[in-house]
Amino acid sequence: VHLVESGGGLVQPGGSLRLSCAASGFTFSTFVMNWYRQAPGKGRELVASITNTHISTTYVDSVKGRFTISRDNAKNTVYLQMNSLNAEDTAVYYCNARRFDALTYWGQGTQVTVSS
Predict the structure, then answer these.
(1) How far apart are the C-alpha atoms of 28 and 52, rounded to whole Å?
(2) Rama region for 25: left / alpha / beta (φ>0; ψ in -120 to 50; rest)
(3) Residue 54: predicted pLDDT
(4) Mind listing the pLDDT tens digit for each residue in 40-76?
(5) pLDDT value at position 53?
(6) Which of 9, 23, 53, 93 has a CA 20 to 30 Å removed from the CA of 110?
(7) How far is CA 109 from CA 7, 35, 41, 116, in A?
(8) 3-state DSSP assignment of residue 60
(9) Residue 5's closest CA among 114, 92, 99, 66?
(10) 114 and 93 Cβ atoms separated by less than 8 Å
(11) For residues 8-34, b (16+ Cβ closer than 10 Å) or e, as one string?
């Protein structure tokens, strides 16, 4: 099983990044996909989720209207489009896959730094 994040980096305040998470080794379409983040000195926070069948999405309040989660089941990939980034968005972002029976997989994380 692999979850490989990409797309992180350094961006100026107000900028945008698109994170990708490529999945392999499991039946991607049967898993809810999530993006978490962990800022320095803080706990891991659920940022966005997308269901496997109904394609409904949820977001933490702090990113609503700025971030968009999406998935392509044909490509086994989940995305996080992040716009209007600010310093508070600086964190390591993790891809997470969770099945109905709580089977869970994690990616290794990708660093996002928002700074001028």
Answers:
(1) 8
(2) left
(3) 63
(4) 999 999 999 999 876 799 999 999 999 999 999 999 9
(5) 77
(6) 53
(7) 10, 10, 16, 23
(8) coil
(9) 92
(10) no
(11) beebeeeeebebbbbbeebebeebbbb
* Residue written as token pair 């999530």: 34
Taking the C-alpha atoms of residue 19 and residue 81, their distance in angstroms, rounded to an integer, is 6
- Give the pLDDT of residue 44: 97
Nearest-5° Cα angle at 71, 31 to 75: 90
Distance in angstroms (rounded) separating the CA atoms of residues 90 and 69: 18
The stretch 28-32 carries a mean pLDDT of 95
Which helix (DSSP H) or strand (DSSP E) does residue 77 occupy?
strand 77-82
Q: Check residue 25 and give its pLDDT.
A: 97
Q: What residues have CB less than 8 Å from 28, skipping those under 6 apart?
A: 73, 76, 97
For the chain, give the number of residues: 116
- pLDDT at site 15: 98
Structure tokens belonging to residue 115? 């700074």
**Is the distance from CB of 94 to CB of 109 less than 8 angstroms?**
yes
